[in-house]
Amino acid sequence: MFNDIGPLELVTLIVLAVLVFGPDKLPKVIQDVTRTIRKIREFSESAKNDIREELGPEFKDFEFEDLNPKTFIRKQLDNEDLGLKEIRNGFDLKKEMAEVTDAVHSRESDTSSASSAGAAGSSGGRIDMTKKPETPDPGDRPPFDADAT
């Protein structure tokens, strides 16, 4: 529970507790805190046992730690019945990405050669940015859409 507390932090907490509660009340506060933690653990264990009893015998080996997604996935990946190790080992992401990259590059080279061959008669799907857009006549009205109003 307190695995990440170092010795300096522990000494700091003890000094702070002595300053806040005083040396006379500190033992009683520690007893109250430990009693409260013990009651919370007992309540938690009784709730777990009640849930296991209600789930029935098919969930006799159910662990609440399995509800953590990381633990659940790790446990399922280690399960040999599903054959997930073979699937995971058979999937090579680098190889797949290299194949996709090669396919994209070959497609780009095909389209660039086709557009250069047809460049004499057309623009090859490119927009001429030097050309100014056409301006409508001031007397022309935009089309009227009866459904839009």
Automatic annotation (TrEMBL):
It is a single-pass membrane protein. Pfam families: TatA_B_E (PF02416). InterPro entries: TatA/B/E, TatB. Residues 99-110, 128-149 have a biased composition (Basic and acidic residues). The keyword Plastid does not apply. The keyword Transmembrane helix applies. Keywords: Cell membrane, Membrane, Protein transport, Translocation, Transmembrane, Transmembrane helix, Transport. Residues 99-149 are annotated as: Disordered. It is found in: Cell membrane; Membrane. Belongs to the TatB family. Part of the twin-arginine translocation (Tat) system that transports large folded proteins containing a characteristic twin-arginine motif in their signal peptide across membranes. Together with TatC, TatB is part of a receptor directly interacting with Tat signal peptides. TatB may form an oligomeric binding site that transiently accommodates folded Tat precursor proteins before their translocation. The Tat system comprises two distinct complexes: a TatABC complex, containing multiple copies of TatA, TatB and TatC subunits, and a separate TatA complex, containing only TatA subunits. Substrates initially bind to the TatABC complex, which probably triggers association of the separate TatA complex to form the active translocon. This is Sec-independent protein translocase protein TatB.
